[in-house]
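A quick word before the example. In earlier lectures we treated sequence and structure as two separate objects. From today on, think of them as two lines of the same record. Here is Penicillin-binding protein 1A written that way.
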Amino acid sequence: MNQGEVKSAPRSIKRLVRWLWIAFGTFVVLCSVLFCFIAWGWIGYMPEVDELENPNYKFASEILSSDGKTLGTWSLSKENRVYVGYKDMSHSLIDALIATEDVRFEEHSGIDIRALGRAIVKRGIFLQKNAGGGSTITQQLSKQLYSPGAGNFMERLFQKPIEWVIAVKLERYYTKEELLTMYFNKYDFGNNAVGIKTAANTYFSKDPADLTIEEAATLVGMCKNSSLFNPVRRRELVEQRRNVVLDQMRKADYITEEERDSLMQIPLRLKFHRVDHKEGLATYFREYLRIIMTAKEPHREDYASWQTQKFYEDSLAWENNPLYGWCSKNRKKDGTSYNIYTDGLKIYTTIDSHMQQYAEEAVEEHVGHYLQPLFFKEKRGKSTAPFTNQLTREQVKDIMMRSVRQSERYNTMRNAGYSESDILKAFKTPEQMSVFTWHGVKDTVMTPMDSIKYYKFFLRAGFMSMDPTSGAVKAYVGGPNYAFFQYDMAEVGRRQVGSTIKPFLYALAMENGFTPCDVTRNVPQTLITAAGESWTPRNTSSKRYGEMVTLKWGLANSNNWISAYLMSRLNASSLVRLIHRFGVKNRNIVASPSLCLGPCEISVGEMVSAYTAFVNNGLRCEPMLVTKIEDNEGNVIATFHPQMEEVISASSASKMLTMLRAVINEGTGMRVRRYTSADVGGKTGTTQRNSDGWFVGFTPKLVTGCWVGGEDRDIHFDTMFYGQGAAMALPIWGIFMKKVFADKSLGYSESDVFPYLNNNVCGNDSIPANSPGGIDSIFSE
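And the structure line, produced from the sequence above:
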């Protein structure tokens, strides 16, 4: 090598080094310019400061029971998250997330340079898949908040610098605790479990604060990819991922090596229940509450011509019920209406979760496991089943075709342009379907026509229990199973009430100077209607025929002739007005003599509310569903209070209380004594042909009503033995109250008594137990 060549070598190296520095400097400048352009919003999307300070979260509203249990949530389809604060999360959750996703989380300001460099070298250059990621928790949060799903690798690559800039800004506006809280509230854990509170409840039936270390590790492990690490579908894979998280917690010194080894041996145990508004406790109640809270101000043009009654009820509710249309009536700070699906409200209801559970169990035990098998047995082999044998086959066919035309399937096909013949052919074509049974969902093959008929076989029920002094609704059941029978028979549906209307008639009598001890002869009564026709009611029993009996005896034994006698002495229009004062909103009640036997249609909720007046010194209490509502920051934005109205005088209420207790102690409600010895008043009711069975009963602290019947009024027991209110509805009340009294934590006792009342106020007018009208004949209404 000559001297010239030796001198040129250092020059070449210097030139290379200079160009490398120029390239590096250019790269730094370009990166700086790039990040400035990103920060200024010139490249990609950069949220405004207000949006960074107040991310546009969509939180589900949470429905809570009076004893603090979550009954359910209302949310958009993919935004079922319920907010939870940092202090309400298990420390294990925080430790597991930091140890697994960002061990230097407390040290960096949004970007972990060491982790980023490691990821670039090991994954970018050496293509090591197990090298770990470079994204911090803050970067992952910025991705969740502001990055749309990337369609390919290059799109994702360009998203990264935007996320870095957003992460740095997030670190500027939020504390580390706030960032962790946002992360856990935002993440989608799959199976409609968005946010850590919903996830903890969905997979482990717990609140985030109550999660064990291994449960917290399971959920944090899912943060890598909740679709892949789905504990319901891939239990073994999720368990392996959980153990990786536990090992990371050991490396970060959050747990010891011994704890790690012990926790790894614990099998993955789930208490999984999918979040679904059709499942869980108080489903009918939650749906009814949702409907009334989101109701709009009623305008007549929005209702069909046949919806006059509905418009009337909604108008009354809009004016008098602060909960009805609450979302439309109230405004947020920004002036917009509240949205129960996105605003993260907490709705504190009056429902007691234990009492609700007992009510649902009582309906299932009596209707599902006792009455339903008997009904199947009675209808087996009958050509008109499940309808009464008093109908012809042609009448049954007409009813079925009417049900077909009212079905969603029929209307969908009709709107799609199918002909009538094609639609009917589809209804007669067998297909696979899952159907309801009282022992669980069953997969079967049947035609849609047969499925309509199949569901008509099932008896329905409506149930409500409420505090007579506050109006707090403690339990609410609208049917057998909301997933399959969505028509609410507690507050929405109305049915004829039969003899449960008689206390209103007797209350009118007490208001007009009658007393329980007034006597009349127990003989048939004939009244003349407004049309000039004669009307003579029948009695199901002839006990004490021709004798002088007290009004107290007449109500206790649900005697129709005594009711007709009172109607002859009172005014039918006055009775209609009093029924409306008792809270019944049905405007179609006809002022006729037969009204005393209950042909009018009333809901279970209205009947329960009406009967509170007998317990509450003549004051009727409106059902109260909610006590307060909080916003997503915990501020109380609405409170609700009892609404009462004087219906009858305290003196008349006392007389009615005496007579209604006699119904239980010596009349048609004596079957109550099979379940409890408590101080009870109430009234049974059965409508024509056993179409409806009723019982409304009350203790000093609780008024509870129940109705049982078929979907159509022509679906019923053909014998009174099982078809009357004392057999269909009263046992549900009895089973429920037996469970309530057994639960001492609820505060209801069989020793609770009404204020002193003279049980023998009218002398010995009760019927001996061994007489034709005694306990052996309590099946008569």
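Notice the following. The CA atoms of residues 425 and 712 lie 25 Å apart. We will return to this example when we discuss secondary structure assignment.
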